[in-house]
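User: Could you write out the 3D structure of this protein bound to zinc ion? I've included everything you need below.
Assistant: Certainly. Input first, then the structure.
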Amino acid sequence: MNMLFNDVYKTNNRQVADLASKLVRIPSHSKVETKETVVNEFIMNWFEQNNIPCEVEYSGKIPLPVAYLDYGADKTLLFNGHSDTTNVDFMKNPFSGEIKGNFLYGRGAADMKGGLAAVMYLFKYIKKTRQNPGINLAFAVTDGEEGGGSPGAIKLAKKLDANYCIVSEPTELKIYDSCKGIYFLKLESYGKSAHLSAPSFGNNAIDNLLGAYDYIKNNYIDNVTKRSNQNSLFVTCSIKGGSEGIPDYAEMLINRRVLAGESAKRDINAINALLENFYKSCNSNADIKIKKTVDFGPERSPMLTPKNKNFTNLCIEVYNKISGTNSRPMQHPGWTEGAIFRAAGIDAIIAGPGSVEYAHTPFEKVDIRELGRAVQIYALIVKGLGQVKE
Ligand SMILES: [Zn+2]
């Protein structure tokens, strides 16, 4: 049993990269009419050719592959990745899938067709060993992650029965056991218009908005930021309003990155109480409302897999062994679908090939040595989980 997967160290980086290249060559960004359909059909056919059972779920019309390696074990490890990419404006050859030197180039190479290919290759490798690793494996491909509200992940998290989840988003293979949630806060300021030469007849919505924001920042935002010791939890990202007279309306959008334990409700209650004080303190007839906007899809909650679980301990041990480092699980700066699976009660981590430095950029690429190392790390986690007794 200890010999299981020992030859995974011989994983051929180029073979994993060739598979990733095939995925990159199939466009699957939001402007493609059939979205992820063609790339997902490729994935389903590939599993079929390799005699690995693959069922299909649907997100609207889009087929979502769910591959299984079922050994009748008590526990299941689910791999997850989205097959959509960001769009390809300003890219020269987004679908070349060219492999040159140590890199595979093209849209999705890092985020996250490299990660998908590593998991596919892992399944093929494990199938080939014809040994029982002591844990069931599943691989769910999801849709619409890049701004589409992740409908597939929401559906599959309710349906799939798993104990552990690895999201193969680009982390340079580092282990993340948490990620921040996202929502938007909108401050709306209503005033009264008047001629610019006679502002006292009006009520300046922009002045009121800026004053209120300042008050909220000094009395709430700065405190939350200080308490958590993290920057960029509130980022003002758009401001609108104004005309040729005294403005009667203005609004400000704030992007809120949420840590585990924080919530939109708590923000809004606290900010509403402050707005009351603000009205009193400036004796103004300002009319300012705060609300959570849902224009950007369903609420994306934060993810936190408890520390010191066998699963997270094992993942970081394997990562440290392969990378020769002594690191600890970290917090992912962005949001991932791991949060959806975690909310369904599954312990989740985020770890995959590729760097966020290149994801979403016109220069997207992935280091093919990381693709091979991803297969190794995943295989050793599978092997370790199969031996864990809880
Ligand atoms: Zn991604």
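The chain has a mean pLDDT of 93.
User: Perfect, thank you.
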